[in-house]
Structure formats: structure tokens, C-alpha cells
Design a protein that fits this description.
The complex is a heterodimer.
Chain A: E1 19-22, H1 25-37, H2 39-51, E2 61-63, E3 70-73, E4 76-85, E5 91-97, E6 102-109
Parallel strand pairs in A: 1-6
Antiparallel strand pairs in A: 2-4, 3-4, 4-5, 5-6
Helix pairs in contact in A: 1-2
Chain B: E1 2-4, E2 9-12, E3 20-23, H1 25-48, H2 50-63, H3 72-92, H4 96-112, H5 115-122
Antiparallel strand pairs in B: 1-2, 2-3
The chains are: A alpha+beta, B mainly alpha.
Chain lengths: 118, 139
């Protein structure tokens, strides 16, 4: 059956999916904490990571700027660094390795310092 | 529903999407007019005199207190990008890109303001294994 307007978009086949790997020990701890405190939201974030880590830019999902715009993993430098706002305070940071179709999880935080509103 | 701006707008909560703000057409037109006029004035001043750009950098922390967390080169980059996007967005009549640029820089400042996260991001990463799907039943 062909998809109708309003239908959910079919998930990508497994071969199209991005690999998601831990790049730092802090990411392992942070991800576990987020699993315990915001499992449903984290599941949504996980789906973004495996299907479209560098697309769907919004105020809550985008590349960082300036000196934090890129990061390094193993022998690779200058990989784009993105952030997903998982909850009001929870954040996930990752590097996009398009060549290897891999997302490198750098850190995950349940809390974030509240910046002065401006 | 929640009243906003006195009694001239209502916020409508939606379960399946972002909340809506219900306003009068005249109010919405007024707000668009004010934003457009302010932006045009600002862009014209910058085009007239380079010193306005410098001045904008100096007053930036007053408007956005969080820029204090950004390193100097990043503050400069933010000003340049903000000016460009203000001009471009005004020509399209769409303020969304401006809000977006501000959000991206604010989130970047948020990382600079968090020494623990900043230290982690500055490190070189290594392959520490696969991230499994989170169990969505826990929350």
C-alpha cells in the first residue's frame, strides 16, 4: 500500500541506519542516568541519532557553534558536534562521522546550568 | 487556555503538537510592523557606519547576558552571524532564522558555562562500544 498523507514515515532499513557508539566514559554514565530519568524522551533522541543525526535542525537539535562546532575521536578531527535537548534540562552531545556513518556519543547530561534568561 | 499579553492573546494547549497563540489580526500586524521597523533601522545603521558593529558587540552582554560565557572569538562570530541573519530574515519577512541562530549560540554558551561537560567535549574520543536502545518503559 502506498503511504498516505499523514502516515508515519517508514523507518529506514537497518543498513541505512547510523551506528551509535560511545566515545567517552562520561557518555556511558550520562546515558544511563538519562535512561533512568527520561526513558521515553531518550528513546526519541535515540531514534533521531540512528535515522537523521544531522538533519531536522531546530532550536532543540542542531550543531554547536564557534569553538565547540567540531570535535575529535580516534584519528579523526573536525567532526561536526551536535546537541539534542532531550528534556528541559537534559542534553546529549555527539560527533557525526558521515564517512563511517557513525554517531559518536560524547556526553549526556540530566542537568544543565540555568543561564540567565536573555 | 492561558491569557497572554493582558487579554489580547490566548495560549492554546495542544496534546499533539506545539501550543498555539491565538491573537487578534490587528495585534499580530502591529507586532510584525514593530519587529520589521526595528530590524530595518538597525540594519540601516550598521550599513551606514562600521562603528555600529563594534558598538553592537559592546552592548551584546546587556541584551544577551549569557554571551559572557563565550570566548571572545565566538562573541565576534555570534555578532557577525546575528547581523547577517537579521538582514536576511527581514528580507524574507520570517523571524524564525533569527531565533534559531540565537538558540544555537545560547546552547553553545550553556556548554561553556558547564566546566564538566566542557572538559569532556575537549577530550579526544575513543571507541567504547555500541549504544543500545534505551528502555522507553522506565519513564
Amino acid at each position: 500500500m502506498s503511504p498516505k498523507r499523514g502516515d508515519d514515515v517508514a523507518p529506514p532499513t537497518v543498513s541505512d541506519e547510523w551506528k551509535i557508539r560511545y566515545a567517552k566514559t562520561e557518555a556511558i554514565k550520562g546515558w544511563q542516568k538519562l535512561t533512568n530519568t527520561a526513558g521515553n524522551n531518550l528513546r526519541t533522541a535515540w531514534d533521531i541519532l540512528r535515522t537523521r543525526p544531522g538533519q531536522g535542525v531546530s532550536n532543540r537539535h542542531h550543531q554547536l557553534k564557534g569553538g565547540l562546532a567540531t570535535g575529535s575521536v580516534q584519528a579523526k578531527d573536525d567532526l561536526p558536534r551536535w546537541q539534542i535537548e532531550v528534556t528541559g534540562a537534559g542534553r546529549v552531545w555527539y560527533l557525526i562521522d558521515a564517512e563511517a556513518r557513525t554517531v559518536w556519543l560524547e556526553a549526556a547530561s540530566v542537568g544543565h546550568p540555568k543561564l540567565t534568561e536573555g | 487556555m492561558k491569557k497572554l499579553h493582558g487579554a489580547r492573546a490566548l495560549q492554546v494547549r495542544r496534546r499533539d503538537g506545539e501550543d498555539l497563540v491565538l491573537s487578534t489580526a490587528s495585534r499580530a500586524a502591529e507586532e510584525a510592523e514593530v519587529t520589521s521597523a526595528t530590524t530595518k533601522l538597525f540594519v540601516a545603521m550598521m550599513q551606514k557606519d562600521d562603528r555600529v558593529r563594534t558598538l553592537a558587540t559592546e552592548v551584546l552582554p546587556t541584551v544577551f547576558p549569557w554571551v559572557r560565557f563565550l570566548p571572545k572569538p565566538d562573541v565576534q562570530a555570534f555578532v557577525v552571524e546575528l547581523m547577517d541573519v537579521l538582514e536576511a530574515a527581514e528580507s524574507l519577512g520570517n523571524p524564525a532564522p533569527v531565533a534559531h541562530v540565537i538558540a544555537m549560540w545560547k546552547n553553545t554558551a550553556g556548554v561553556y558555562a558547564d566546566p564538566e561537560v566542557l572538559a569532556v567535549l575537549k577530550k579526544r574520543g575513543d571507541d567504547l562500544g555500541e549504544v543500545a536502545a534505551p528502555d522507553s518503559t522506565t519513564a
